[in-house]
Amino acid sequence: FREAIGFVADHAKAREALGFTREDGKWVSPEDRAAAEEMKKQVAGAEEGEEVKDETPEEKAIGSPLVKRRTKHFLIQSALGDASVKECAKLAETVFKDFHEFLELSPDTPVVKESIGGVMLLNEEQHKKYVDSFVEGSDGLKEFYRKGGGQWDPSPPRFEGWKTGDDAGILDMVVHMSVHVLFHDYMAEGANNVAPWLYESMGYTFTVRLRQSALTHCITSGTGGGGKEGMPFDAGRWKEATRASVQKGVDPPMPRMLGATINSIQGDLLLKGWSMLDWMQATRKPKLLEFFAELKHAPEGVDGQISAWKKAFGQTPEESEKEWRDWVRANY
Fold first, then answer.
1. Which residue in 30, 90, 160, 320 is deepest, having the highest Cβ count within 10 Å?
2. pLDDT tens for residues 284-301?
3. What is the DSSP string of 33-94?
4. Is residue 25 helix, strand or coil?
């Protein structure tokens, strides 16, 4: 049956025999369906935190009150109301738990020791005031973030985003940005070795795991990092889009993916990196964790990535790419 869908993506009998179901016009694997149900249960059971009354620096900066809740690992502030801040708090705590389980870490020894700040704002005006107050760096860097949909900082650990669309985008952003902060601290002294494709792939992987969508503005089709254009594909159908690019032979070459910057990584590169990470965790999880460990001590840049890749996977990125393509054809 795997061979059948490798040739015909929409082979209904083969898909059904493998346990796939048709949902919203797309095929969903039994593994993805079970994972989605489990994540929904975890979010529903997560803590929503306690209300915070004291005024915060973020409120002073934007000149407007925020609804605030403190959980075990986060201080969540929202301009979107009490229901929103509670849902964001529950999501953030679920991300924290799932992240540690994914990396086989104990939540009792968290990778981020401080409380992580998360701020969800109502409009672009509030967002720009936040950036002007809290983003450190050159005027050019601030202007870059002023034009974006949100941003994150490792020290102190925090993230911020504003409502560029509906509430779903804010919730997806909470997951995506939380993962950025957590992954940065997990990589510790090797954080500078984490290429944009890997940061973004981790963010989108967890967003889909918890939300079954990925409405964030880190990566877009035409603008790269921080843009506001739409994705070149429906994020809920990212596997279909990945398979189509592989079948047509138009997925980007590995050197382009490994060397992409946050300003140059766009939809096709995101798809490949996201799917590469999916393949790694599904078929060789111990080697994926070894890859992360090797990256912590590798030289910066593409050469460091390639060195860590060879040590962890025992093959070149191009050799892995061939296996990944076969796996995509049989599983997406």
1. 160
2. 999 999 999 999 999 989
3. HHHHHHHHHHHHHS---EE--S--HHHHHHTS--EEEE-SSEEEEESS-HHHHHHHHHHHHH
4. coil
d(CA 147, CA 265) in angstroms, rounded, equals 17
b/e string for 106-128 if b means 16 or more Cβ within 10 A? eeeebbbeeebbbbbbbeeebbb
- At 263, which amino acid appears? N
Alpha-carbon separation of residue 161 from 29, 83, 128, 156, 309 (angstroms)? 32, 17, 10, 16, 33
- Give tens-digit pLDDT for 131-173: 999 999 899 989 989 988 889 999 899 999 998 766 778 888 9
Q: How far apart are CA 98 and CA 91, in angstroms?
A: 10
Q: What is the pLDDT of residue 235?
A: 66
Degrees (nearest 5) of the Cα angle 219, 152, 205?
Answer: 50
CA atoms of 279 and 220, how far apart (whole Å): 23
Cα–Cα dist 289/228, whole Å: 33
Phi, psi of 121 (to 5 degrees): -110, 165
